[in-house]
Amino acid sequence: MKKRPHVVVTRRLPDAIETRMRELFETELNIDDVPMSPDALAAAMQRAEVLVPTVTDRIDAALIAAAGPQLKLIASFSNGFDHIDVEAALKRGIAVTNTPGVLTEDTADMTMALILAVPRRLVEGARVLSADRDWAGWTPTWMLGRRVTGKRLGIVGMGRIGQAVARRARAFGVSIHYHNRHRVAPQVEEALEATWWDSLDQMLARMDIISINCPRTPGTYHLLSERRLKLMRPEAYLVNTARGEIVDEAALIKLIASGAIAGAGLDVYENEPMINPKLLRLAEAGKVVLLPHMGSATIEGRIEMGEKVLINIRAFFDGHKPPDRVLPSML
Ligand SMILES: NC(=O)C1=CN([C@@H]2O[C@H](COP(=O)(O)OP(=O)(O)OC[C@H]3O[C@@H](n4cnc5c(N)ncnc54)[C@H](O)[C@@H]3O)[C@@H](O)[C@H]2O)C=CC1
Ligand SMILES: O=CC(=O)O
């Protein structure tokens, strides 16, 4: 009988996925769900043929260099793969896979929720009834936000999630603009009635809402730098459900605090899980809505991500190319 591959999983996964994983592979689970230290990850990479990490595991070049020769596949339970030094892995002959597509709609829903929540002061309003309970009733001038319909949305990164955000925003009467590494296919642009901006700077200066939906790569670190954030209009909002490091967080905080940008809706942060206390104060003041990196957090999505991990591992050990290989052209 063929030897079952030895798989190490770094965090708890949905029950159904863990059960199936145990049926199919020689599986080590992280039952306590405590994040693995770099030493624990290094040890796991010494014994595993397959590592199943998530976005909270930093698989850097040093860890990959120290991995045992039996490690053949890093099958990440995530869409983004910026936590893995893919180039170093591929150089060592270790394949890398991710779980694209199955969390597109969930993450776009959460992005749209932030696009609505920030200008319409949703969280502030909800807090009035849950905490203080001192609501004196409806008044014509209290708790006024900004209208969403008729506004211009600029999407940075018009891939799967960016396009799904555009589809939703159109239904709210928002006009779609985008900046992407490459212009998207004409039929996609046409269906979304989307306007392409070759210049990110020019787009930033004209939009009411900016949504960040590009991956974190060496090229997108602080893509929204202080200089670029300063191009935004004082009435504009920034929403980021991609990765914290794409935005210069300290500059964003400064500009919101000074009124140079109206506010922000964030699901991701530069130093997760640490949150800059100044951001928490802005949240108290109703200037930002902060979510704890939960863009893809649905039961359905997490099960489908797990299924993708299973399929990728099986395909690899059956001698096929796993469907969700991260290729050098994607880096
Ligand atoms: N908050 C959350 O829970 C989640 C966050 N994500 C994040 O969302 C990101 C996007 O996911 P998908 O839409 O599935 O990826 P995708 O690969 O389909 O789309 C990304 C788009 O960004 C573009 N892009 C790359 N570099 C760019 C640059 N410098 N400037 C402008 N555009 C650039 C690409 O050309 C591509 O069209 C992931 O990489 C991940 O970091 C993904 C899932 C859940
Ligand atoms: O941020 C989550 C992911 O899957 O990427």
Radius of gyration: 21 Å
Secondary-structure class:
alpha/beta
Query: Within the largest sheet, what's the order of strands?
Result: 8-7-6-9-10-11-12
**Span between N and C termini?**
38 Å
For the secondary structure, the number of strands is 12
Stretches where pLDDT is under 50 for at least 5 consecutive residues are none
Strand proportion: 5-15%
State the fourth-level CATH superfamily of the largest domain: NAD(P)-binding Rossmann-like Domain
How would you summarize the topology of this molecule?
Layout: E1 6-9, H1 15-24, E2 26-28, H2 38-47, E3 50-52, H3 61-66, E4 73-75, H4 86-91, E5 95-97, H5 104-117, H6 122-132, E6 152-156, H7 160-171, E7 175-179, H8 186-192, E8 194-196, H9 200-206, E9 209-212, H10 226-229, E10 237-240, H11 249-257, E11 263-266, H12 277-284, E12 288-290, H13 299-317
Parallel strand pairs: 1-2, 1-3, 3-4, 4-5, 6-7, 6-9, 7-8, 9-10, 10-11, 11-12
Bound molecules: 1,4-dihydronicotinamide adenine dinucleotide (NAI) and ligand LL5AMS7Z.
Ligand LL5AMS7Z binds at residues 55, 78-80, 103, 296.
Keywords: Oxidoreductase
GO molecular function: glyoxylate reductase (NADH) activity
Family: Belongs to the D-isomer specific 2-hydroxyacid dehydrogenase family.
